[in-house]
Amino acid sequence: MQPFTVKILGCGSALPTQKHYASSQVVELRGKTFMIDCGEGTQVQLRRAHVHFNKIAAVFISHLHGDHCFGLLGMISTLGMLGRTAPLHVYAPAEYELLFTMQLDMFCNRMDYNVVFHGVDTTVSDTIYDDRSLTVTTVPLNHRTNCCGFVFREKPSLPHIRRDMTDFYGIPQCYLNNIKNGADWTLPDGTVVPNIRLTAPADKPRAYAYCSDTKYIPTLHEHLKGVDMLYHEATYCEEDIKRAALYYHSTARQAAQVAKDAGAGKLILGHFSARYNNEEVLLKEACDVFPNTFLASEMKFFDV
Ligand SMILES: [Zn+2]
Ligand SMILES: [Zn+2]
Fold first, then answer.
1. CATH of segment(s) 4-157+203-303
2. Which of 206, 151, 201, 177 minimizes the C-alpha distance to 29?
3. pLDDT at 16 over 90
4. Is the pLDDT of residue 139 over 90?
5. Known binding site for Zn(2+): residues?
6. pLDDT in tens, 94-124
7. Domain residues of the chain, as ranges?
8. Core-most of 30, 42, 206, 280, by most CB within 10 Å?
9. Which family does this protein fall into (predicted)?
10. Residue 126 CA, ligand 1 centroid: distance in Å
């Protein structure tokens, strides 16, 4: 199975702390690299995580709060200095386009690569990215400004060749691709060996969902059914549930409820408020509802 990895670059919330960087993470699948959110400090964190800047194919911005996007322009400028030639695709709330274009004109006007802006309607669930390996679908969230989450869904892969069987029947190397694509094999005496005896079922396609920032949405799980891994903001603990609602954020327990209702494989908590010195409290509150929960932290890598 090919790695499907999420690298946490930053999982703090709006106020800077010594403990956390602003929101950003990198998703790697089948040799492709994507970024979700790009808060201040992301470039430094990319260096620390040994992610090659130029490998990033697209950046997905959840919403236009600084802790999720103030690092974007700096990174785009750096990519220019690093001699990038491949286009960079930026998916962000549609209302950013005018300002973003002006910023590019002012600060990034002599680069050898194109930045392609894709305006996202955060109020609907829509597939905004589609390639051979995966799709990215938006999930409307409920925040103080237009905001959406993203679900990265791997596309089904081909079945595995059973080497023991193909060797047994002496099937030549050059024919294995046909077997992978469903062909049977015919023996010299005319007997047909069905494909099912030559292959093992393909790996189940995996899915990763990112939901930050948002007030608790009781129906959110409907968009997240069966995801293998969910990153959900957990800005507050249960004691501050009123504050969470007031500022359109969630508690750790609410994040866990979403994971439980979605039937997620595991839950990663992030977007921690600067007010908690000990995030174990958040972890405990979430684990009471959904045991397979982990705290995000900078430079932690998770397999989907
Ligand atoms: Zn935020
Ligand atoms: Zn926000």
1. 3.60.15.10
2. 206
3. no
4. yes
5. 63, 65, 67-68, 143, 213, 271
6. 999 999 999 999 999 989 999 999 999 999 9
7. 4-157+203-303, 160-200
8. 42
9. Belongs to the RNase Z family.
10. 22
